[in-house]
Amino acid sequence: MVSIHQLFVVFIGISVTVVTRGSSPPQRCHQVLEFYRQQNFNETLDVEVVNGKVCREPSCCTGKMERNLRLKVEEDLKAGVLRGGEQVGGELKAKHDNLDKFFIELIDQSKSQLDILFYETYGSLYIDNSEIFSFFFKELEEYYRGGPLMVEEISENFFTSLMLKVFQLLNKSYLLDDEYMACIGENVGRIRPFTDIPDRLSMQLQQAFVASRAFVRGLETGSDVIKKLSKISLSDECSSSLMRMKYCGRCGGTMAPECDGFCLNVVRGCLCSLQQVGGVWKKYIDTMDSLLEKLSGSFNIEIVLGSIDVQISEAIMTFQEHKVAITKTVFGICGKPKSNPNATLPTLTMSYPQPHGAEESYPVHYPSLYPGYQGPSSFEDLAGYGADPDNWIGDSPLSRKSRSTKKNRKRRGRKRSRDISMDQRGMLRPSSRYVEDK
Fold first, then answer.
1. Confidence class of residue 18 from pLDDT cuts 50, 70 and 90?
2. Is residue 8 in a domain?
3. Which bin fits 372, alpha (ψ -120 to 50), beta or left (φ > 0)?
4. Amino acid 106: pLDDT
5. Which of 314, 385, 402 is nearest to 355 (CA)?
6. Distance from the Cα of residue 273 to its chain's centroid
């Protein structure tokens, strides 16, 4: 039984034959000459019917003309794929640059926020000991940029240094040498001067920074991969098929354009290597979408960094409130040090800062996914680029009509997960919804 596709091919063949027979060879070849010169080829064309190597039927194109047209159609496809790849890669790179700058600014803002709060509370006492906090934020930034220390280790080092400094300031009446302080540092886990605050903040920082760093690196990797994939090479078989599809009709005197379905099938054959990465690309998109959802919710780095000053303040106040018990524990572990008769006791008291809700005080305002991009703000838009070669062709004349046809196809019941929207408080909120195309 003959398929619809076979009937379509036969119909096209009959149409070509009819058009070809409608003109005499010299007249057809004059039309071919005019078309050939429009492609910026200036060589002399004899007005006669010849047989080229690619276009087997009676043709007005010589072997040299076929080679020129073949090179042209190769260049058209390569240029279209390159434009498509540069567009997607450029969108990912722009997103990477925006978020990278944004996250670094968040770290700087968090440090400035802590500087203001602690200077207003402790004055010169904080200035004299601010290197502990500066080093903490420096290590967080180094981790984000790919440093070797893990967030958990950075947090542990900071709270150990903070415990030693606060203990010194609260116990100026004792002589605390390096050996004694080393004993305290080795036993911070047993002393637990800040209760569970270090563990809580460490977990929050680890979740937020790991997700943020992975997300930004993923954007950069995706951009690099797309740009490399867009630099394609074409096989001889592909080039011949492109030439046959695009220009053999012209060489035979048929001025009718190639059909969309045939064009797209040939291009798909030429870009089969890109189709093979479709599954991997989809996994990449799903992973990036999942990270984006976490960054918009429980792993929100803006909320975590915005609360560091309050959580560290709470840790110091907890230490002060339990000073007697903590000192007793330290003396029990490391021994009671000698008294310091020349000590002056500093004031290390602060009031609790006004509590604030994370959502109210730190609204999420991530930069838009693609600056200047008017489409949906989700990575789902890019999911098809790995699987559908038509998306790689850019503005190539090979696929303008195919893309127009594709846009008009009806797609019903398609689920678009994790669309990003803003709620009334300015918070990013992921949601799932079904879209029925009318």
1. very low
2. no
3. left
4. 96
5. 314
6. 23
Residue 140 within any structural domain of the chain: yes
Per-residue tokens: 59: 């043709």
Cβ count near 147 (within 10 Å): 14
Quick one: CA dihedral 162, 164, 169, 171, positive or negative?
positive
Q: State the amino acid at position 215 in one-letter form.
A: F
- Of 131, 144, 98, the closest CA to residue 372 belongs to 98
pLDDT per residue as tens digits for the range 85-133: 899 899 999 999 999 999 999 999 999 999 999 999 989 999 999 999 9
Specify if 15 maps to a domain: no
Q: How far apart are CA 208 and CA 151, in angstroms?
A: 10
Burial class (CB in 10 A: 0-12, 13-18, 19+), 90: middle
Q: How many domains does the chain have?
A: 1
User: For residues 407-420, b (16+ Cβ closer than 10 Å) or e, as one string?
Assistant: eeeeeeeeeeebeb
Q: Are 149 and 172 in contact (CB under 8 A)?
A: no
- Tell me how far apart the alpha carbons of residues 174 and 417 are, in angstroms, rounded to a whole number: 62
Task: List Cα–Cα distances, 256 to 179, 249, 314, in angstroms.
Answer: 91, 8, 78
**What is the SS3 string spanning the chain?**
CCCHHHHHHHHHHHHHHHHHHCCCHHHHHHHHHHHHHHCCCCCCCCCCCECCCCCCCCECCCHHHHHHHHHHHHHHHHHHHHHHHHHHHHHHHHHHHHHHHHHHHHHHHHHHHHHHHHHHHHCHHHHHCCHHHHHHHHHHHHHHCCCCCCHHHHHHHHHHHHHHHHHHHHCCCECCCHHHHHHHHHCHHHHCCCCCHHHHHHHHHHHHHHHHHHHHHHHHHHHHHHHHHCCCCCCHHHHHHHHHHHHHHHHCCCCCCCCHHHHHHHHHHHCHHHHHCHHHHHHHHHHHHHHHHHHCCCCCHHHHHHCHHHHHHHHHHHHHHCHHHHHHHHHHHHCCCCECCCCCCCCCCCCCCCCCCHHHHCCCCCCCCCCCCCCCCCHHHHHHHHCCHHHHCCCCCCCHHHHHHHHCCCCCCEEEEEEEEECCCCCEEEEEEEECCC
pTM (2 d.p.): 0.70
Which pLDDT score is estimated for 14? 30
Domain of 152 in residue numbering reads as 92-232+284-367
- Cα 187 to Cα 171: distance, rounded to the nearest angstrom: 17
Q: Does any domain span residue 416?
A: no
